[in-house]
Amino acid sequence: MVMEGGTSEMVAAAGRVYYTMPFYLGLGVILLYAWHRFDEPSFPRDEALPSEVVPLRYLFLRPAYVRARLVYVTISCTLYFLLVLAGRPILDALGIGAAQFPPAAWPLTIALLMVGVLPNPNMKWLNSAEDRLRRHVHAWFLVPDGVKETIAVLQDAAYTPPQAQLEAVKEPLRSRIREGLALPRTELRYRWARASMLMEAIHQIGNGAPHPLASAGFQAFQEDLVALRQRYRALRSDIDTSFASPPSEEVETALREQVDGLLQRIYAYLSWGVRHQAQSDRIVFAKLVECGFRVPVVDQGRRSFDVIAPALLLVMALVFVMNWIIDATSPQWAVSALASTVAAGLMYGGSSLIVLRRRAQMIEATTWDPASPRSLVGLAWRAGLATWAVIVAVTVFFGFEAAVNSLTGLWSAAVRGSDLDEAALWFPSRVATAAPWFLVGASFSVLLASRLDGDVRRVTLADRARDAAVAGIGLALAVVAASIIQEGLEAAIRGAPSPATVEPFLLPGTIGLLVGGIMGFVLPKAFRREIMRPARTQARLALRELMDRAKQRLGEDAEAWAFTRPEEDTDIRITPAEALRYRSHATGVWALLDQVAAARGSNWQPSAAAVIDGGRKAG
C-alpha cells in the first residue's frame, strides 16, 4: 500500500482492494461466521430461559429473529470493510508482519483473524467488541428481556381459567382448583391451585380440544416440559401432605418458595411458546388474555411527537422570525435563519422527545422518581449530548466544504505527519465550541421533566403561565451561561480577548427566554390533557373504567385521587390515570385504589381487576 502519495492515492488503493478475489473470499468468511455466530447466547443462563437456547430463534418474536440477524451480519461486514480500508498497516498494528502474507491476500488475512482461524493475542479487543455487539443486538430485539417482561406480567396478573379449560379437568381436582382460586393470592392454597390449573391447561395444548395456543410453538421445549412435569409431581405429594395436616411456619414458607419457583417456570414455558408464535408483543398479551390472564390493556396514547409538535412549530417560527429581523440586512440572512431554525427544532424537539421517551422507559422499569436527582440526571446527560451533537451536525451541514477540508487535513496530518493549519483545525474547533450547549440541553430536559409530574389538572391559564416562567427563565440562564463559555472558548482559540460586556449575550438570552416560555406554556398542557382525555379508544376506556370504580369507592375524591401523584407508600410515583398506560403499573393501580378506599374507611369491595371466580385478590 502506497502511503506517500497522499490521501487520494490511499483511498484509491483501498478502493482497488475491494475488487480483488481475496476481499470477496474474506467477505464470504465474515458472512458465514456472523450468520452462525448470532445464534450463540450472549447472556447468562437463568430460570427464565429454556434448557437449550441454541438456536436463539425460539426466544424471538417470529419476525424479529430475521431482522436481528441481518442487523448483526451487516454490522460485522461494516467492521470488516473498515479494517480493510485501514490498509495493510493494520496487520503491523496487530503485531503481524505484513511481509508474511502475499500483498493481495491481506483482506482475507483480516477476515481469518476476525473469526479466530488465525489466533492472535492482540485481537482480544476485537473479540470483546464482538461479544458486546452481539449482546446489544440481542437486547435491542428483547432477548431475553422480552421473556422476562412477559414472566413479570404473568406474575402480577389476575388469573381466571377459561370455562372450557376448567371443565376439562377431572374431579375432584376441578373442585379443589375452583376453591383455591377463590382465596386471596397470598394464600398457599391459591398459589397451588393456580399452578395446578396452569399445568392442566398446558396438558390440554394440542390434545384436540379448543385451546388458544398451538402445540407447534412448544415443540422446541419438550425437554423443559418433561422437567416441569417431574417438578410438579414431586411437589404435589408434599403439598397434599401439608393440606392434610397444617405444617409449621418454616415448612409452609419452604413450600411457598417451591410453589413460587414452579409458577415462575410455568410462566417461562408459556412465554417461550407464545412469543415464538406471535408477530408482536400486542399479540403475545392478547393470547395470554385468551388463556385467562387479566393482562392490563396498555396504550400510552398519542405518540410523543404529537404532544411535542405544536410547541415545536411555534419555537421554530419564532427563531426564524428573530433571525430574519436581526440579519435582514445581511446577504446571507436566509442561510443563517434556516440554520438557526433547524438547529432549534432539532435541539428542543430532540430534548423533549428524550424526556418523554426516557421517562416512559424508567416508569415501565419502575425506576422513575421525580423527586430523585438520579432520575433527572439520566435525562439530562442524554439530552445534553444530543444537543451538542445537533449543534455540531448543523454546523457541518451548513459548512460542508470547510468540514471536508478540515477532515482531509486531519487525515493527511495523521498519515504524513504534516502540520495542522487553520483549515484543518476548523472541525475540532467547532466541536469544542459547541460543547457548552450540552448545558442548554441538560437544563432544558430537567426543566421540562419537572413540569410534567404532579397534578395533571393544572391546565388553567395561571398554571400555564407558571410553567412558562419556570422554563423560560431557566432556559435563558442556561443559554447565557453557554454563550459566555462558548465565546471564551472561541476567543482562546483565536488568541483574542473575551468580551468585557454583557451586551453580546442579551440577544441569545432573550431568545432562550422566549423559546423556554413557549415550550413551557404549550407542551406540559398538551401532555396533561392527553392523560385526562386520551385520544385512543383503549386508553379512554381504561381510564373510564378506573374513574367509574374510583367514584364508587371514593365519591367526590375520585378525580383528585386519579389525577394526582399518590401520597401512599407505593411503587407508583405517577398519577394513577397515567399509570394505566404502563404494564408494570396498571395492575397495581387497582390494588392502590383498594388500599386508599380501605384507609379512608369506605366499605371494602374488591375492584373489578381483582375479582377471581367470586373470590378476592389480596391487595
UniProtKB/TrEMBL annotation:
Transmembrane segments: 17-35, 70-91, 97-118, 307-326, 332-356, 376-400, 425-448, 468-485, 505-523
Alphabetically ordered keywords of this record: Membrane, Transmembrane, Transmembrane helix
Tagged with keyword Membrane: yes
Membrane keyword on record: yes
Protein name stated in the entry: DUF4129 domain-containing protein
